[in-house]
Amino acid sequence: MNKAILHHGNPKELEAKRIAEIKSLSYAERLERLMAIIEVSYALKNAPKIYRKK
């Protein structure tokens, strides 16, 4: 098994890399990522309700 590599570094540099990565995406790819974040957020918001019903 390969050892996991954590990216430790200056937070400003890491943020700049993320911003550059997002800027390189097309509009459709950005929209897909946004929808995935919204779906996860909705699932986390409603998770306690689901478990209380059981």
Task: From the structure above, extract its key features.
single chain, 54 residues, mainly alpha, extended
Structure in words:
By secondary structure, the protein is mostly helical. The chain has a domain at 27-54. The chain contains two helices and no strands. The chain has helices at residues 11-24, 27-53. The chain is extended and about 40 Å long.
Give a quick summary of the entry:
The chain is built from 2 helices and no strands. With 54 residues, the chain is mainly alpha-helical.
Into which percent range does the helicity of residues fall? over 70%
Question: How do the helices and strands follow one another from N- to C-terminus?
Answer: HH
- Count of runs of 4 or more consecutive helical residues: 2
**Number of strand elements:** 0
Q: Report low-confidence residues grouped into runs of 5 or more.
A: none
End-to-end CA span: 38 Å
- Radius of gyration of CA atoms, rounded to a whole number: 17 Å
Give the DSSP E fraction (strand runs of 2 or more residues).
Answer: under 5%
- Briefly note the structural class of the backbone: mainly alpha
Spatial shape = extended
Query: How would you sum up the major sheet?
Result: none
Q: What is the residue-mean pLDDT, rounded to a whole number?
A: 84
